Amino acid sequence: MIKLTGVIAVAFAVLTAAIASAQDLTGPQRNAVRSAEQYLSMTGFSRAGLIDQLSSEYGEGYSVTDATAAVDSLSVDWNEQSVRSAKQYLDMTGFSCKGLIDQLSSEYGSKYTVSEATYGAQQAGAC
């Protein structure tokens, strides 16, 4: 038997969990993972915004259950996603700190949590 220690043991556990998680997904959920990864490669998304995009009849049309399972199977730093979104908003127009946090956290905007939106606005330089 091989004894794993320290960082190697943690990395092995994370990899094993990721493989097990991916194997637990259904075919539609695995397809939704691929779609989610494509969206995340293009722009910043909040968890809720990505689930909405995947499950929207105007987006990908996955069921909310499949979209949620797919998004939750990914390892995503939602704070970093909010920074990406904040920078994209600031590239388009000026925002006050509060205005950008409101835009990022609005149910009609990007749907980040207020904590994620605050982090994004601060890291993007709006605050």
General description of the model:
This protein is mainly alpha-helical. It folds into two domains: 7-73, no CATH class; 78-124, Arc Repressor Mutant, subunit A, CATH 1.10.10. The protein has seven helices and no strands. It has helices at 6-24, 27-42, 47-55, 64-73, 78-92, 97-105, 114-124. The chain is elongated.
Low-confidence stretches: 1-20
N to C succession of SSEs: HHHHHHH
Number of domains: 2
Give me the number of helical elements.
7
How far apart are the termini? 54 Å
Q: Considering DSSP H and I runs of 4 or more, what fraction of the residues is helical? A: over 70%
Query: How would you characterize the largest beta sheet?
Result: none
Mean pLDDT rating: 87
User: Percent of residues in beta strands?
Assistant: under 5%
* Coarse structural class: mainly alpha
Number of strands: 0
Overall geometry: elongated
Q: What is Rg?
A: 17 Å
